[in-house]
Amino acid sequence: MTDVSIIHNPRCSKSRQTLALLEENDCNITVIEYLKNPLTVAEIQDILVKLDINARQMMRTKETEYKEQDLAKVEDEQALITAMANTPKLIERPIVLANNKAAIGRPPENVLTIL
């Protein structure tokens, strides 16, 4: 049984589908509702390393908060990470962490590669 954590928003259909997929694959799941329990800057940095992407690639760039904070003009990686820590809604979801790796569940089947 694989231990996994899912950065989860229960209101998101892709996040619910990914959680169901993990359950179907007999994973031992820790659910992290990041909107209720925001990720820290350090946690976001760790996830970015595991995803092997930059901060903007982990952001929901179509969110109103992204536009309101004028983040399209921000080039500083640390500032983008801080924005995600301060405004969790900006974080792409779901993200699954397993076996010291991470995958974004869009589509949900993406996460199977790290189990």
As laid out across the biggest beta sheet, the strand order is 2-1-3-4
Question: Can you tell me the CATH superfamily?
Answer: Glutaredoxin
Largest sheet geometry: 4 strands, mixed
The first-level CATH class name:
Alpha Beta
* Counted beta strands: 4
What is the strand content?
15-25%
Given the helix and strand composition, which structural class is it? alpha+beta
Average pLDDT, all residues: 97
* Low-confidence parts: none
Approximate helicity band: 25-40%
> What separation lies between the terminal Cα atoms?
9 Å
CATH topology name: Glutaredoxin
Gyration radius over CA: 14 Å
By CATH, the architecture is named 3-Layer(aba) Sandwich
Which term fits the overall shape? globular
